[in-house]
């Protein structure tokens, strides 16, 4: 029975089902589909998880009507098969303007205390998304000043009118900035990745990692490379917030990628954390990136300026920061854990084998995260598809 129920729900989520339940009237309990060892994500109290919101958010995430001229969706820069990264250093916006930074992967974004490469003030997904939608520096979806046009466009679609009604009965299905952003954020919180070989090796199956990956793991967590000073914990980053934690942890560091003037300056186009705080010591600091699915999320770093994982090690970290080999030498503002180390090609291959073990095939092929297509789901589920561990 349970299996059948799941199947039916999955079909409904896939957009093909003319099935089931009068959703709006049922009380909903959300169950996270996560392993028992993973803590639950934090959810803002004004946007509790509901399957109807997730289904609506998924449709919006893939909908190009969210851009001013119908050319871009969130999913244009965040591709599931690449762990929701983009595969390009920067992605042009709806008006063809070049982007400034690399679009980020979205696996486990629900666990982040702040969003984007270097902004501790953007603490919710609901707030973050206002940037791609409305910002003009650079233009991404290009909807700045056109909120009304966007909501009218969505209201014209009878499918959305119905989806918003079942997702937001308390708002009587109103299509507003609040309901649009809450729905997309709810979908983003379901983008959970805990099924990589590395997860299996940590939680029981010691055979999940190849001998090369195991050697790479030892190097990664060892004293020579020091990677795990910053890349640690649930998502291999020192930025985490979870329901079982009293305080979030945040980590912004200068890794010595640039040194434009001998005093540690980054290029004028992007000073990282300093742009937000105004503090000189924050020059070149960026948020430690999660390494989940990292084999798929290149090119690497905030500006996509390192093409391969090999170069992340060979041309950047092993030199004590890439700038060390440039005209102005080592960046004096770089983090104390960024120091040169000797590494052989065989050891680099082992570290890469370890990083490859962070790829979660079921995450990048999960049908619940894919483009739901144009078909309007005629009924929506009132509970999440599956799961252990209640919110
Ligand atoms: C034109 C490409 C583009 C589009 C379209 C786009 N994004 Fe992004 N996304 C980016 C870039 C670039 C960044 C990094 C921004 C920064 O650091 O300033 C990013 C960062 C993010 C992050 C932060 C992830 C993290 O780890 O902190 C989230 C979440 C996100 N985008 C969600 C969305 C959503 C939702 C939409 C649609 C409403 C969207 N994006 C549309 C390019 C895009
Ligand atoms: C001092 C903290 C720190 C240490 C030590 C560190 N990293 Fe990082 N890592 C970061 C930060 C911060 C970024 C983002 C930097 C940027 O974009 O400018 C990053 C980015 C990365 C990226 C790119 C991720 C992406 O999606 O673009 C990879 C890969 C990576 N680190 C691997 C490693 C490895 C391997 C080591 C050990 C050799 C290591 N890191 C050591 C802080 C650190």
From TrEMBL:
Keywords for the protein's UniProt record, in alphabetical order: Heme, Iron, Metal-binding, Oxidoreductase, Periplasm, Peroxidase, Signal
Main location: periplasm
Binding site for heme c 1: 74, 77-78
Transmembrane as UniProt keyword: no
Binding site for heme c 2: 227, 230-231
Cofactor binding note: Binds 2 heme groups.
Signal sequence range: 1-23
The keyword Signal belongs to this UniProt entry's keyword annotation: yes
Gene Ontology molecular function terms on file: cytochrome-c peroxidase activity; electron transfer activity; heme binding; metal ion binding
InterPro entries: Cyt_c-like_dom, Cyt_c-like_dom_sf, Cytochrome_c_Peroxidase/MauG, Di-haem_cyt_c_peroxidsae, MauG/Cytc_peroxidase, MbnH-like
Compartments where located: Periplasm
Entry cofactors: heme
EC number, UniProt record: 1.11.1.5
One Gene Ontology CC term in the entry: periplasmic space
Post-translational modification: Binds 2 heme groups per subunit.
Cytochrome c domain: residues covered: 211-359
PANTHER family in alphabetical order: CYTOCHROME C PEROXIDASE, CYTOCHROME C PEROXIDASE-RELATED
Protein's name in the database: Cytochrome c551 peroxidase
High-level lineage: Bacteria, Pseudomonadati, Pseudomonadota, Alphaproteobacteria, Acetobacterales
Gene: ccpA_1
